[in-house]
Amino acid sequence: xxxxxxxxxxxxxxxxxxxxxxxxxxxxxxxxxxxxxxxxxxxxxxxxxxxxxxxxxxxxxxxxxxxxxxxxxxxxxxxxxxxxxxxxxxxxxxxxxxxxxxxxxxxxxxxxxxxxxxxxxxxxxxxxxxxxxxxxxxxxxxxxxxxxxxxxxxxxxxxxxxxxxxxxxxxxxxxxxxxxxxxxxxxxxxxxxxxxxxxx
Length: 200
Prior knowledge:
CATH class: Alpha Beta
Order of helices and strands: EHEHHEHEHHEEHH
């Protein structure tokens, strides 16, 4: 079985203030066949190198958008990245087949807990419903959309719980890289990590 090459497009405009994303990205670093690409670090002026980014996409099999869930979406640079990198003729449209067959994953964190992301909750919609634009973007580009990796209620998490989620994220990346996750069971999940619960 061939190794799945993973590209993590990481976007956090205030990483020094992060509780969970800083630990998740640390956990992802140093894994063979996993490339961590910090967009705010690479492009502080938002002048994105389109050709370089497209080459990164071509060189990897699984694309991860990792970011805090800002205003039910992504930080600004990731939206800019989508606008300029996923060009017509490259990612979609006539002859735009460069990303066909690749996989896509959202790895996000939210301040609200699971109870807030349901019809009866404060946000009125589920995480999967809020992520629909990302899912449709993946589908338009011919990519397979995987259930998202979601860490919720981050302001209430203990240091031990954060460490547990980071460890689980690293293990998930290893399993995705090695192709050891059951694909049929995976498709049935709302969240990639929904079966994981940290117990202190």
